[in-house]
């Protein structure tokens, strides 16, 4: 009898498990076990129903696990945009959610296998709407903004400028004037022309306009042109009206930051061309404010300009509607429409900081959003009421007064890393460390648009150096700043002012009035500091290899990867010649760098001869040597490898790091790049070849400087030669028949003298000429010449 009861119970359980959803289950029941039901439905291959239950779990529970499960379900259903939105929401709720993080990576691979690359996937994500409002209530779903704000049972979330503006109107009606103006100001940040949808906005703004100011951003977004330009390119490529109006905020800020340099004018012009409802009449008059810039427009934007110019001329060359864009003839633009920040005394305390948090949240910049929100809440805990509607998911922040840190008395230099390679990152950060020490500032590192590079480096515990997240609580993120931009290709006038500042001024006093200075560069500028006449003595200005040792070391993962390969290959059992080939990559280095994707046969022959000549010069008559071959493209690596095998009788082995990820915009790609730099640093001879140029390469300088950080290689044979490795260059650009040259091994500053002496000649002399460094062909001597030459 007992066995029969057990069997009957088992059959009942099977029957109940097959009855999905279970009896009495309702999607709108806030107390139902939605997540369990969803998983059972998914296991039964009833994915559309499972998704609805996962949505219910996300709506009523709202935890990161709920959104992670919803994202996976959408991914299985091949709804890639919704999957991206849900998984990112899970990461926002809990940045340490390994399940969500892993599935984000899986999603990118899965989407790509179905024809959606990263750009297309991001576009799908921006358009996706998780739609967590209950479907059985039209009033709760809201066909119009005012209806949509009447408060569903789940938490209200405001996303569009019209919704945020409508909320402002509700607050005005409640008598909460300051908070209403705060919401309205945020709506204007999102869409400065929100009055096209909400006409009453013009009446309110007209009363405040005379005291309103431009958006300036904070340490996470708005202080650095490279970050702003990255946002422009990443978030607004595929948007149409009215969503594209949010682009105006960032395009205008970019213009204010870069002035005449690329690409502020381009970006504003492109925005005007995309805002059809009101902005087309502004395009040509705006570009004619700086007619000398028009020939410098990007090629694709020149075509846009010519089209709009023809339209403008055919329609009577009309002036743009007011308010028109103005220009002072030097470097300052004015456009009343872009003054979207309300005066501080007209909005709640801390509102401007909260605005930065809300904007960062909209861009999925969650680290900055969290830090900015925390600061806003310390200033004014009541802002938590607004954050629930505009930044859902940060419920862990206490809705109570926090302890305000004491006003920071220190000064800071914030180093923003642009999208450059490991070599440029290293030389800039070391230069920034020197500048910070000269001016008595804390160096603050912002990985910025190059965030994946943090996987290649580990910052050392050096006093006076902090990451941005560590520094913000004491630094605050709203102070006015002094911005320094130093790039080899930039507006000549801006470059001249920076060379004057770094090369001629007394930095201890010239920057003293600025508590926060920001730096964005792709140049090694330590040599300029070393020759500044005010810094002749008493300052510890570290050369590159020494500064690198103080500041950071290759990551443990990169060291492990390099050491594992070196051990497997019996590294240095014979002399190793490291050959680094930089070839042209699609979308990379397209200004003045590699000219082809692989070297031609004639130069391949020169490479072989150069290797043989270098080995003979450095080691005499050795029987055999190995070559470690690194290249930026797989095609170049294969071409060079095949040639060396056929043409070098004394060549032993050709070594190359296996399963290499060449994409330096991924964490794995930067780790592999660093592992290659470490292996190059253990070679006996370094030969570099940048296809079509004289071979300037900061990656080469980095690899040589890493010879002084050898802790990871203690189990390998010792270096055959201490100090820098002999450095050779193969090039056809310097007029020598053998095309093999010896080059300086220590890092040099890239050439900016081509801007002209009217730029480099400053109040204390020619800042660049006095470096006495040779660049390009003058820095190279034919390898066959044995006499020493001072370079």
Tell me the total number of β-strands: 20
Proportion of residues in extended strands: 5-15%
Largest beta sheet, briefly?
A: 7 strands, mixed
Question: CATH class of the largest domain, please?
Answer: Alpha Beta
Q: Report the CATH architecture of the largest domain.
A: 3-Layer(aba) Sandwich
> What is the terminal separation in angstroms?
100 Å
Low-confidence stretches: 1-17, 135-153, 399-404, 786-791
> Oligomerization state of this entry?
single chain
Structural Rg: 30 Å
Q: What is the CATH topology descriptor of the largest domain?
A: Rossmann fold
Q: Mean of residue pLDDT?
A: 84
Architecture overview:
- With 791 residues, the protein is of the alpha/beta class.
- It folds into five domains: 18-127, Tetratricopeptide repeat domain (Serine Threonine Protein Phosphatase 5, Tetratricopeptide repeat, Alpha Horseshoe), CATH 1.25.40.10; 153-214 and 343-390, no CATH class; 225-336; 412-553, Rossmann fold, CATH 3.40.50; 555-782, Rossmann fold, CATH 3.40.50.
- 45% of the residues lie in helices and 10% in strands.
- The chain is built from 32 helices and 20 strands.
- The chain has a seven-stranded mixed beta sheet with strand order 14-13-12-15-16-17-20, sandwiched between helices.
- Helix 3 runs antiparallel to helix 4, helix 15 (264-274) packs across helix 17 and helix 21 crosses helix 26 (544-551).
- The longest helix has 19 residues, at 601-619.
- The chain is globular.
- The model is unreliable at 1-17, 135-153, 399-404 and 786-791 (pLDDT under 50).
- Residues 1-19 form the signal peptide.
- TPR repeats lie at residues 64-97.
- Keywords: Repeat, Signal, TPR repeat.
- InterPro entries: TPR-like_helical_dom_sf, TPR_2, TPR_rpt.
């Amino acid at each position: 009898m007992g066995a029969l009861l057990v069997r009957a119970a088992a059959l009942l359980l099977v029957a109940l498990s097959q009855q999905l959803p279970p009896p009495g289950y309702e999607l709108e029941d806030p107390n139902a076990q939605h997540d369990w039901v969803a998983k059972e439905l998914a296991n039964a291959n009833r994915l559309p129903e499972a998704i609805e239950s996962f949505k219910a779990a996300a709506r009523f529970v709202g935890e990161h696990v709920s959104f992670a499960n919803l994202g996976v379900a959408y991914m299985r259903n091949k709804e890639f945009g919704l999957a991206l939105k849900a998984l990112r929401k899970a990461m926002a709720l809990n940045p340490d959610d390994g399940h969500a993080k892993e599935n984000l990576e899986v999603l990118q691979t899965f989407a790509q296998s179905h024809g959606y690359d990263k750009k297309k996937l991001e576009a799908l994500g921006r358009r996706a709407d998780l739609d967590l409002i209950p479907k059985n209530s039209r009033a709760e779903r809201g066909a119009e903004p005012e209806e949509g704000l009447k408060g569903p049972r789940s938490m209200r979330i405001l996303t569009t400028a019209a919704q945020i503006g409508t909320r402002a109107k509700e607050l005005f009606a409640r008598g909460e004037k300051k908070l209403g103006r705060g919401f309205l100001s945020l709506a204007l940040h999102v869409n400065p022309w929100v009055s096209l949808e909400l006409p009453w906005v013009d009446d309110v703004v007209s009363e405040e306009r005379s005291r309103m100011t431009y958006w300036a951003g904070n340490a996470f977004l708005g202080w650095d042109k490279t970050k702003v330009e990255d946002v422009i390119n990443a978030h607004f490529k595929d948007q149409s009206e009215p969503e594209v109006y949010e682009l105006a905020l960032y395009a205008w800020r970019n213009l204010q930051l870069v002035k005449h340099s690329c690409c502020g004018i381009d970006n504003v012009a492109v925005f005007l061309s995309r805002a059809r409802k009101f902005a087309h009449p502004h395009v040509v008059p705006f570009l004619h404010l700086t007619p000398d810039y028009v020939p410098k427009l990007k090629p694709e934007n020149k075509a846009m300009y010519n089209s709009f110019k023809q339209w403008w001329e055919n329609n009577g060359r009309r002036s743009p509607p007011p308010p028109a864009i103005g220009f002072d003839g030097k470097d300052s633009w004015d456009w009343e429409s872009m003054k979207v920040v309300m005066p501080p005394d007209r909005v709640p305390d801390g509102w401007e900081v909260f605005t930065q948090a809300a904007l960062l949240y909209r861009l999925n910049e969650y680290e900055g959003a969290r830090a900015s929100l925390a600061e806003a809440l310390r200033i004014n805990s009541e802002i938590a009421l607004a954050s629930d509607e505009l930044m859902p998911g940060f419920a862990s922040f206490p809705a109570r007064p926090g302890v305000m840190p004491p006003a920071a008395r220190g000064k800071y230099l914030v180093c923003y890393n642009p999208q450059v390679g490991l070599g440029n990152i290293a030389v800039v950060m070391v230069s920034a460390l020197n500048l910070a020490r000269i001016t008595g500032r804390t160096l603050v590192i912002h990985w910025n648009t190059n965030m994946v590079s943090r996987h290649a480096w580990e910052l050392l515990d050096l006093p006076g150096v902090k990451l941005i997240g560590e520094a913000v609580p004491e630094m605050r993120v709203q102070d006015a700043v002094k911005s320094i931009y130093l790039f080899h290709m930039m507006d000549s006038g801006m470059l001249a002012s920076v060379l004057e500042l770094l090369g001629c001024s007394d930095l201890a006093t010239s920057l003293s009035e600025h508590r926060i200075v920001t730096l964005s560069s792709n140049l090694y500028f330590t040599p300029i500091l070393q020759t500044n006449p005010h810094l002749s003595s008493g300052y510890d200005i570290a050369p590159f290899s020494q500064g690198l040792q103080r500041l950071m070391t290759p990551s443990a993962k990169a060291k492990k990867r390099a050491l594992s390969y070196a051990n497997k290959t019996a590294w240095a059992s014979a002399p190793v010649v490291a050959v680094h080939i930089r070839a042209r990559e699609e979308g990379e280095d397209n200004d003045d760098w590699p000219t082809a994707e692989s070297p031609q046969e004639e130069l391949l022959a020169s490479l072989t001869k150069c290797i043989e000549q270098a080995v003979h010069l450095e080691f005499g008559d050795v029987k055999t040597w190995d070559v470690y071959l690194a290249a930026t493209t797989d095609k170049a690596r294969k071409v060079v490898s095949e040639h060396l095998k056929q043409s070098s009788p004394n060549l032993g082995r050709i070594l190359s790091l296996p399963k290499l990820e060449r994409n330096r915009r991924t964490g794995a790609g930067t780790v592999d790049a660093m592992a290659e730099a470490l292996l190059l640093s253990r070679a006996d001879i370094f030969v570099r070849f940048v296809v079509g140029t004289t071979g300037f390469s900061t990656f080469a300088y980095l690899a040589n400087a890493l010879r002084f950080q050898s802790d990871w290689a203690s189990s390998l044979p010792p270096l055959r030669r201490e100090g820098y490795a002999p450095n050779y260059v193969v090039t056809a650009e310097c007029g020598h028949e053998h095309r093999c040259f010896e080059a300086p091994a220590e890092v040099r500053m890239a050439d900016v003298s081509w801007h002209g002496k009217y730029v480099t000649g400053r109040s204390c002399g020619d800042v660049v000429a006095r470096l006495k460094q040779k660049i390009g062909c003058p820095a190279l001597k034919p390898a066959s010449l044995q006499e020493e030459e001072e370079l």
